[in-house]
Every structure is written in C-alpha cells, then in structure tokens.
Amino acid sequence: TLANYTFAEVDNTGLLQRYENAAWDGILGLGVARSKEEVGGPTPMEALVQGGLLDKPIFAFHLGRCSLEDGCLGGELVLGGVEPEHYSGDFTFMNLIRDDSWAIQLDAVTIG
Prior knowledge:
By secondary structure, the protein is mainly beta. It is 10% helix and 12% strand. It has helices at 36-39, 44-50, and strands at 59-62, 65-67, 71-73, 76-79.
C-alpha cells in the first residue's frame, strides 16, 4: 500500500484547454522523471520505488490483442518487474535521446 499519496483521475477533459498539448498528460506517471516543482511531487512510480514497495524500479507492458477466433485477450501492466511468460530472449537496454521522453534512436524499422 502506498500510504499518504494523493492520486487524481480525470475522466472528462472537455473543460481543459489545450489538453492534447499539455506536458503533464500520460499514463499513471510512468514518464521520465521531471522536477518535483513541475509535477507537484513524486510520480506514482517514483513513490513506489522510494517506499521500497517494488523489487526493481522498472515496469513492463504486455499488450492485449483481438482476433476473430479468440476475441480480445487482455493486456497487463507489471510494476517492479516483468512477467516471464510474456516474452522470450533477453532485453536490450537503449539510451534515451531526450531527457523528457522515452525517445530512442532508430536506424531502421522492419515490419512483418
């Protein structure tokens, strides 16, 4: 349990001007850390790490998929590790090319 942490949910952005261009939009505070003055305190992920509530300071997504045969199979967000049943092989870690986003350098992309 993350004690004494304030979290807000926005389910209607209709009254927020320029929401689509806002620097603070994102998913659950999983973005690259910014100054505490800019965001008003630690992100949920930072607070979990600082509180010693995660095995590792990492998170992983397993994206769900839909097919005509199987319907939709749900996705998953794992905090503090990865789910081995959702991947094979080794991870490759990349340096970020920006300080404020998860952007990496790509030399080529292959699909299929």
